[in-house]
Amino acid sequence: MHLGVDSFVAAVTDPASGRAIGPEERMSDLLEEIALADEVGLYSFGIGEHHRSEYYDSAPPVILAAAAARTSRIRLGSAVTVLSAADPVRVFQQFATLDLISKGRIDLVVGRGSFTEAFPLFGLSLGDYDDLFTEKLDLLLRIRESEKVTWSGNHRPPLTGQGIYPRPLQDPLPIWVGVGGTPESFVRAGLLGLPLMVAIIGGEPRQFAPLIDLYRRAGAHAGHAPEKLQVGLHVFGFVAESTQAAADTIYPGWHEMFTKVSRERGFASPSRAQFDATSGPDGAFFMGDPATVAEKLVRIGEQLGGVDRVALQMTNPRLAHADLLRGIELLGTEVAPRVTAATA
After folding, report:
1. Is 121 exposed, middle or buried (0-12, 13-18, 19+ CB in 10 A)?
2. What is the pLDDT of residue 266?
3. Are residues 156 and 87 in contact, defined by beta-carbon separation less than 8 angstroms?
4. pLDDT at 253
5. Exposed, middle or buried: residue 53 (CB in 10 Å: 0-12, 13-18, 19+)?
6. Three-state secondary-structure class, residue 101
7. Total domains in the fold of the chain
8. DSSP letter string over 127-189?
9. For residue range 50-101, what is the model confidence (pLDDT) as tens digits?
10. Is the separation of the CB atoms in 38 and 5 below 8 Å?
């Protein structure tokens, strides 16, 4: 089980001083965070894509290019690229270029996103939500297979044999499908033989076991080798010196973030009791000291029939840069070795 970090590059207010961290400083801090993740041996670092005022990650390939120039070992990727609202030709060109810059360290994770701002921003209809993703994923995979493509669809002008350049160093470029809880999404990824990145933001991770089994059975039915059907998890988490410290450090920003989303979507505001319950032994949040987080990762991997990688999403609008750096350090130097020893 490989471990990494995902970031949504949230705008941050320093919890000690109340000072708003400007976007220039936040980007500088982010690159330091990625460099540290590389230094302490973490496997991956992913950048999300949002088109909202509280996030600075609307152009992940630009951030990833800067990160590639400052790192040497860590895999870099999207978490996720909102393919439904993008042109697959440009997405492939950007990530192929990133793959060359990074010397083959790029993973492209594509999905439909958990927010909808990208659709009106780029002149797309939410009524085409599923059709857009299906069609654009088909084109992206066709481009990955061949540098010259003949293709036609409903949401983009046809291609009549044009070449798509550059080609990536990795052949093929790794393309993962990011999914939530829709069975059809798990089946589609399995039938296509694409690795699966499951976003688990609530409930209990073990509840996803039937869906992951559905993915594996669909893949086997389509004739794909088991080693192609990799499973990754995107989860909320944080590592600190103690479990109490981890929870107390993360909660203020978590509450702020999810209170805003809950109001937008008509849900009840989240509570500390809800947060603590979801941070418990069977909950979706991976919070705690290194031993606690490592034990939970191993247990969840067993419950889901094996997990290839887990990325902890540590973005928080009230999380101090120094605390995040310490969390990354503990994840790489203390959690990862424990997980490796337990799963070897």
Report:
1. exposed
2. 87
3. yes
4. 93
5. exposed
6. helix
7. 1
8. GGHHHHHHHHHHHHHHHHH-SEEEE--SSS--EEEEE--PPPSSSSPPEEEEE-S-HHHHHHH
9. 999 999 999 999 999 999 999 999 999 999 999 999 999 999 999 999 999 9
10. no
Question: CA-to-CA distance for 147 and 169, rounded, in angstroms?
Answer: 13
SS3 (DSSP) at 67: helix
Rounded Cα–Cα distance for residues 275 and 293 (Å): 16
How far apart (Å, rounded) are the C-alpha atoms in residues 14 and 319? 7
Structure tokens at 291: 């031993």
Give the model's pLDDT for residue 267: 87
Tell how strand 148-151 and strand 159-163 pair up.
Answer: antiparallel
Structure confidence at residue 269 (pLDDT) = 85
DSSP 3-state percent helix, strand, coil across the chain (nearest 5): 50, 20, 35
* DSSP characters over 208-230: GHHHHHHHHHHHHHTT--GGG--
Residue 45, CB-side half-sphere exposure with 13 Å CA sphere:
33
pLDDT of residue 22: 96
Q: How far apart are CA 340 and CA 344, in angstroms?
A: 6
* 91-137 confidence digits (pLDDT tens): 999 999 999 999 999 999 999 987 899 999 999 999 999 999 999 99
Domain with 227 in it? 2-343
Location of structure tokens 């046809």 = 158
Structure tokens at 302: 């067993």
Residue 271 burial class via C-beta count within 10 angstroms: exposed 0-12, middle 13-18, buried 19 and up: exposed
pLDDT < 50 regions, the chain: none
Q: Would you state the pLDDT for residue 285?
A: 97
CATH classification at residue 151: 3.20.20.30
The number of beta carbons lying within 10 Å of the beta carbon of residue 281 is 11
The pLDDT value recorded for residue 211 is 98
